[in-house]
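Our working data are protein records whose layout never changes between entries. An example says more than a description, so a record of this kind follows.
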Amino acid sequence: MNRDYIAHVRKKGDDSWAAPHLLKDHLEETAKRAQSFAAKFDSAEWGKAAGIAHDAGKGRKKWQNYLCFKSGFYDEEAHLEGKPGKLLHAIHGAKLCEDLYEKGIGRVLSYCVAGHHAGLPDWSGAEGAGMSSLDFQLTQVKDLNEIEQFILDEIRSANPQLPPRQFSRNLDLSLWIRMLFSCLVDADFLDTEKYMEPDKADQRGKYCTIPELLERLREFNRKLDESTVDTPVNKIRREIRQKCIEMAQQPQGIFSLSVPTGGGKTLSSLAFGLEHAKKHNLDRIIYVIPYTSIIEQNAKVFREALGEDQVIEHHSSLDENELTPRSRLAAENWDAPIIVTTSVQFFESLFAAKPSRCRKLHNIVNSVVILDEAQLVPVDYLAPILETMQLLVDHYHVTFVISTATQPAFGERTSNCSHFKGLKNIREIMGGPEEVKKLYDSLKRVQIQLPTDFHTVSNWEDIALELRNYKQVLCVVSDRKSCRQLHKLMPEGTYHLSALMCGQHRSEVIKEIKDKLDKKETVRVISTQLVEAGVDFDFPVVYRALAGLDSIVQAAGRCNREGKLGKSGKVVVFVPPKKAPPGFLRKAAETTTSILASLNGQDPLDESIFQRYFAELYWKANSLDSKGIIPLLKPDSLDFGMFFRSAAERFSIIDDSQQKTILVRYGEGDKLIDTLKKHGPDRQLMRRLQRYTVNVYKEEFDLLLRRGSIEEVQPGIFALTSSIEYSQKIGLMIDDIMFDPENLIIEGS
């Protein structure tokens, strides 16, 4: 029996080798952590078993000899199975689970153990997995008899008996397996980090408790109330916040927060979250936001209220690379009390297969998840998203708050002989229909001017001439190409806002715009829809290119936000030269046109219209599970066969095959990119670099690469080679290669 087998090795700063990380210690500590994580959803013994089995394959002389590739020397990256030429070890633990446990128990654990480096596998090659399928890999393991006896004894002793409940059909079992996988992966990462980078490991967990954060928020709100003018709008905001505090005492479940734009949802929903978390002893608040532009603004508000070091922003794909030990350890696990993330990051993680994306999932358990601007949840994935949300509420102690001015029709309903499964028992925080209507009426601050003819197009030159007539005006268009076309026609000094500007750049420009608005100086802005959700501009006049009704209402929320003009804010809707792209966005615009044309004098901002709009829009959608996610994750009765990897590849809100992330040399980004090039990734550096990223279409990326504008600074991470191709006014300079995404879209897809 050899209890001195090694799990990991590392070099010290002087290039000498540190004492090795013993395999016995690693298995025991990983099992303890995974057991503790899984206990939160009544699966402690399952987490322990996965932790003991995950690196069992290292308990072979063959693997130990492979680790010591020369006498007296080691391979520091031996354990990284994802790299070419690495000797496999994870599948051996999976095979042991299959052989030593009953069939159902072994299959659940073998998915987790087999995937802890390479990602959750597909069961068979039916979806094209081939030799990477779990079924095939299990047949290739021939040397289990070489594994040390003490490991076999530990695995047998950890045998879990029963799952926590009887699983329902569809996504229930696959979500539970992914949760167990998350517990294992995070436990493995954390114990490895403790050995590989002990200084960084010591920095984890230094956050305030939920009760401490709640006291900070109460004090912040008290000072805010004392310092703000007692206007009618501010009075209503305080009433909304108080209602949130009262409703937070209710049992966990699903809540809606229907508040018009400008009603102070950000701080009110935070108050609900912290009060609710304290009441039910929950671990964290997770804000899920559609655009990085809102993340930057909301995270700033949260930091002002709770403390600079209490809030984690997570909205980048930069942590997805797993080719080095350091980049693996840099991945986020959402171990802070306040997480602010994007809907892309949140929802794609719920269906992910990669360890770096899945490791955070167990930290969604025991939390309040606030879906800000929930109407932007992608319709193509609505069925699997809503089913997963309901499962999180029913079995993982999660409370959801669906927060928006334009409530989507997410509730379960039956009409016209059709059934929409939706969410069950949604409770409206602001009260019944009459109370909600009264609230919307009290916060009405604008008049909307609709086109006299929805078939008559306004060209950009005419729109530019109209905009010049206003000293302060915001114009929102639906795509970045239109944004730049219109901006070019505007007078010098007009501001531009789009996703071709990195987050730090946008934040600085937004601050400049707000300062000019406050000082009543001339300020004209051309923006994409990124300003529509959460950016608290207060313009007297807003123009909006025809789009979905929710977009128009959100744009109106940037007009007369503080109510200083009474109810005379002006919102002008116009028909732009370019239609929305074929597919869902065009259906949204067409549905809006149909509804607005038939209002017969009814206010377009009347909240009663939203349910009709979304119900019609969902009915028009080709499918609420257009990529077939649910069938891939619905286990067959014979083998528990599921296709985790295929589902993850299909569940891509932003098509990775068509978009790439690059780092730009703007401001501090220049120095941070050079640091990344020289020293490689670490957790803090990758967090800071998130503010200096821009997503581009693959065709643009390829052209930038061919002309030498970008370089690979670390494996899979690309950055601008110089700051010349990044404009201080409009961001990344790709006008000559500006790609039109409409060319990719096929009607009906």
User: Anything to note?
Assistant: The chain has a mean pLDDT of 87. The two ends are 59 Å apart (CA to CA).
